[in-house]
Amino acid sequence: MKRIYEPRDLMEGEMLKGMLAGEGIQAHLMGSHLVGAVGELPACGLLAMCVDDGDAERARQLIAEYNGAQPLPGDEPDNFQDVLLC
Known about the structure:
The protein has 86 residues and is of the alpha+beta class. Helix content is 30%, strand content 14%. It has a single domain (2-68), classed as Alpha-Beta Plaits (2-Layer Sandwich). Strands 1-3-2 form a 3-stranded antiparallel β-sheet, with helices on one face. The longest helix is centred in the N-terminal third of the chain and has 13 residues, at 10-22. The protein is globular. Pfam families: DUF2007 (PF09413). Residues 1-66 form the DUF2007 domain.
């Protein structure tokens, strides 16, 4: 197992784990059980995304592509008011 990425939070970690699973890469999110103890532990480095050695390079590439993605032009609403109307 190789440590390939440190997610910002549990939500990002779970989302990336699902994305990698969709690409056929089994990932493990180490440290997720420690997130509840953030008040007592240093907040940095608690989470780690780990994959099998043979999947490490592809997984890093997929995460880099995800982090570098830009929204498609035209996906913005026509009348964006910076206010959520419910």
